[in-house]
Task: inverse folding
């Protein structure tokens, strides 16, 4: 029987893989877009007015950015150390796609990759043209120079698919990558947590971002039990890590939501987080749903949660940016 010996939850956003000098590049796009916050939809100017008393402008200066980036990088290195120390044979990585390997023509709610190889190739000129402002500079944080092929783990992936179907999760099964790139949710883990020395892994994707088929937060939490059962039932002596990639609140940071979420992990009681409701888990904040199966499996497995750090990285006085979280279970 395989054994889960480590769980990891990590943010993966572009601010973590770019210099602080570039953090403000996304602000013009922030000003042009509408944003999810407090269950509603807000313009940039409305956010500035609503959050005027929070002193957010004081948190968007380079000295603060540098301090917060240093904390983030230290926590990423700590998670990478823990991964290396745990001597992991296979990792199950839960993340979301953002029009990287899927497209609106076909976007499954849940999917599991069971192929031999996970491809992570560099972008061509046409693909680069599709990127939002400021994203091209982050690509090297997710894709190594020259690209890479990573080993899958078909045996465990098929066990996860079979168990999911038994548990009435109708998952898409991918024998190969739909496109040659790896979504940044996984690219970050392979590059930073596994330090470009990835063990065999299983990609579990959740459509957190895009209507109309986003699984609910509760449904994602329940998936954790199915993943745990599949790994426990896998006829292997491998040491397994379960990794969540994404979050925390963004593109507008909401520290109250993040505190509720991290307290739920600490207390092994997710009802307060689930009670935040689906209107909370929109835009980038929806990536918290990637953490929910991992937190569920870890609570059932009985591994101790450790919140390494919480680092809100604001890039504007409207509160746009990315709240970073770093957690492990062992």
Result:
């Amino acid at each position: 029987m395989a054994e889960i010996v480590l769980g990891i939850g990590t943010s993966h956003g572009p601010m973590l893989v770019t210099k602080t000098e570039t953090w403000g590049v996304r602000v013009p796009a922030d000003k042009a877009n509408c944003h999810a916050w407090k269950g509603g939809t807000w313009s940039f100017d409305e956010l500035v007015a609503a959050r005027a008393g929070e002193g957010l402008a004081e948190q968007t200066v380079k000295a603060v950015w540098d301090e917060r980036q240093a904390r983030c990088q230290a926590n990423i290195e700590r998670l990478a150390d823990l991964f290396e120390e745990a001597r992991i044979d296979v990792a199950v990585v839960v993340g979301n796609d953002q029009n990287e390997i899927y497209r609106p023509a076909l976007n499954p709610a849940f999917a599991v990759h069971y192929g031999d190889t996970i491809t992570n190739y560099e972008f061509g000129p046409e693909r680069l043209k599709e990127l939002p402002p400021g994203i091209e500079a982050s690509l090297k944080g997710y894709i190594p120079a020259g690209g890479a092929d990573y080993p899958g783990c078909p045996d465990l992936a098929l066990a996860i698919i079979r168990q999911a179907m038994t548990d009435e999760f109708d998952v898409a099964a991918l024998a190969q990558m739909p496109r040659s790139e790896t979504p940044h949710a996984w690219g970050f883990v392979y590059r930073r947590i596994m330090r470009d020395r990835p063990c065999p892994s299983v990609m579990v994707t959740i459509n957190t971002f895009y209507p109309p088929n986003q699984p609910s937060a509760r449904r994602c939490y329940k998936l954790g039990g199915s993943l745990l059962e599949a790994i426990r039932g896998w006829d292997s002596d491998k040491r397994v890590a379960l990794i969540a990639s994404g979050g925390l609140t963004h593109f507008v940071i909401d520290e109250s939501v993040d505190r509720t979420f991290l307290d739920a992990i600490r207390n092994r009681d997710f009802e307060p987080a689930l009670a935040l409701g689906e209107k909370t888990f929109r835009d980038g904040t929806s990536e918290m749903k990637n953490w929910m199966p991992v937190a569920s499996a870890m609570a059932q497995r009985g591994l101790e949660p450790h919140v390494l750090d919480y680092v809100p990285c604001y890039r504007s006085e409207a509160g746009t940016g990315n709240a970073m979280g770093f957690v492990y279970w062992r």
